[in-house]
Amino acid sequence: MSDPTLRGKRTVVRVVVWQAISAAAAAAGFGVFSGGWPALSALAGGLIIAIGTAVFGWRMFAPGVASAPVVNRAMMAGEALVMTPALTADVSRSP
Length: 95
What we know:
Blueprint: H1 4-33, H2 36-60, H3 68-88
């Protein structure tokens, strides 16, 4: 377990799994106390965050062990992949 890239990817997987478990626990709590729609909203929001973390981690550890500029570029690319859907979402249509 001396490979830093493998350790980084395993860390990302652990973080994503814990985020999904936390989202499910929050959804269960909302389901018990508030009903179905709030539970579904909590689950959807938590899973969206977990997917964003997975995409960021996948892109962040893509170059492996590299120089600082390469890792910085990978980090910025990962952040751009996570933020682009949020910035391009059409929120002008209100129900």
